[in-house]
Amino acid sequence: MKFNIITLFPEMFVGPLTESIIRRAQKNNLLEINLFQLRDFADDKHQTVDDTPYGGGKGMVLKVDVLDKAISSVRSKYQKSRVILLSPRGRTYNQDIAKELSKEESLILVCGHYEGFDERIYNLVDDVISIGDYVLTGGEIPTMAIVDSVSRLLPGVIIEESFLNESFMAKDDSGKYLLEYPQYTRPLNYKGEKVPDVLLSGNHAEIEKWRNSNLKAFKND
């Protein structure tokens, strides 16, 4: 899997995408992360990527011509890429979409900033995704969330058994996501709260029954 990220702030990705499981996966050639500075695709000497909006109003809008050049350039290098725009108007991200994206060969993730995009960018992308109903400064943090959640589903990145019973990997009969059962480790008794006896019994059938009965339906309140 190749993640190709178009952003005004590539330095923001140092740390979140260069540590832990993702760092190891890149080292083992299980995934590749490429960062592209949007300003590199501007024509003028000031590398201008935004302008004031027609009709007036506060804020600056990212220019469609610069975005088009950036997307076209990256797409020419990674031709089997799905282009995703991070925008509040997109479909709300969830584990089903993470699974869907993990089947792709390559993704181009376009991070917004400032007041937003020229409307015409929506003609240049394959998909639009939002990570929730709230406002962030730009698309960098949503992109990190997508890269992280998709990466761990790729073959070999983590042991498959580690995520099969995780939260959001299954649904109940009504279609609601299920949250993982409670987990415990030492100490056995902490401030009066003890580990459930069934987990100490050694009876794997009863433990499995207890775990299944303690899966919780996710409530998006």
Q: What does the secondary structure layout of this molecule look like, with pairings?
A:
Elements (H helix, E strand, L loop, with lengths): L1 E6 L12 H8 L4 E6 L12 E2 L9 E2 L1 H14 L3 E12 L2 H7 L4 E5 L5 E2 L9 E4 L9 H12 L9 H4 L13 E2 L9 E2 L2 E2 L9 H10 L2 E2 L4
Parallel strand pairs: 1-2, 1-6, 4-7, 5-6, 5-8
Antiparallel strand pairs: 3-4, 9-12, 10-11
CATH architecture annotation of the largest domain: 3-Layer(aba) Sandwich
Query: Please, what is the CATH homologous superfamily of the largest domain?
Result: SPOUT methyltransferase, trefoil knot domain
The end-to-end span amounts to 34 Å
The main sheet comes to: 5 strands, parallel
Uncertain segments are none
CATH class of the largest domain: Alpha Beta
Look up the CATH topology of the largest domain: Alpha/beta knot
For the record, the count of structural domains works out to 2
Q: Count the beta strands.
A: 12
Helix and strand pattern: EHEEEHEHEEEHHEEEHE
Mean pLDDT: 93
Tally of individual helices: 6
- Percent of residues in β-strands: 15-25%
Which structural category fits the helices and strands? alpha/beta
Helix content: 10-25%
In the sheet with the most strands, the strands line up as 2-1-6-5-8
Specify the overall morphology. Answer: elongated
Round the Cα radius of gyration to an integer and report it: 22 Å
